[in-house]
Amino acid sequence: MSLPRPYPADTYLGEGGEDSAWLRGPDQPAEVVFRSGGTCEYLATGDQTAGRFGLYRWTFGEDESGPDPHFHRSISEQFYVLSGEVRLHDGRGWVTARPGDFLYVPEGGVHGFRGGGRASMLLMFAPGGPREDYFETLARGEKMSDEERAAFMLRHDTHWV
């Protein structure tokens, strides 16, 4: 019988706790609106969590959109479907995920996602890299040469397969 994995080392070294929690209400507008009509809400950014994770609510527009299969070398990615249907690539092929379905993708795991019809999901990265610049740049639809786009993707740990 193996022993349970121990807790990580303490990061809070104070004595009595502190008032440091924060709440993001449901009435706050999405930080990113894509040309497709989809949105990305920043629930907890890597900056807000000291790099531990980034958590986003992703809502698709009416028409199907989403990235082709790719992988990340330094971050894991998690998907939890909240509403509608989302097609997720699990490294072997596309599967249809419905509310309550969860997909964990470790570093190096090939994945992709596609959705439409205002489907929504939680999208989490760990550790919390600077994904906000990635989302915001794509939403602006900035023109990039092939070389600039390749450098942008590498800067954001996105490797296409």
Structure report:
With 161 residues, the protein is α+β, with helices and mostly antiparallel strands. It has two helices and eleven strands. It has helices at 131-140, 146-155; strands spanning 32-33, 39-44, 54-59, 70-71, 76-83, 86-89, 94-97, 102-105, 112-115, 120-126, 159-160. The longest helix is centred in the last third of the chain and has 10 residues, at 131-140. The protein is globular. The termini are far apart.
Keyword list:
alpha+beta; three-stranded antiparallel β-sheet; Cupin domain-containing protein; Jelly Rolls; 161 residues
What is the terminal separation in angstroms? Answer: 40 Å
* Fraction of residues in helix: 10-25%
Q: For the largest beta sheet, what order do the strands appear in spatially?
A: 1-2-3-10-5-8
Low-confidence stretches: none
Given helix and strand content, the structural type is: alpha+beta
What Rg do the Cα atoms give?
17 Å
CATH class, named Mainly Beta
What form results from the Cα inertia axes? globular
Give a short summary of the structure.
The chain has 161 residues and is of the alpha+beta class. The chain is built from two helices and eleven strands, in the order ββββββββββααβ.
Describe the SSE topology.
Blueprint: E1 32-33, E2 39-44, E3 54-59, E4 70-71, E5 76-83, E6 86-89, E7 94-97, E8 102-105, E9 112-115, E10 120-126, H1 131-140, H2 146-155, E11 159-160
Antiparallel strand pairs: 1-2, 2-3, 3-10, 4-11, 5-8, 5-10, 6-7, 6-9
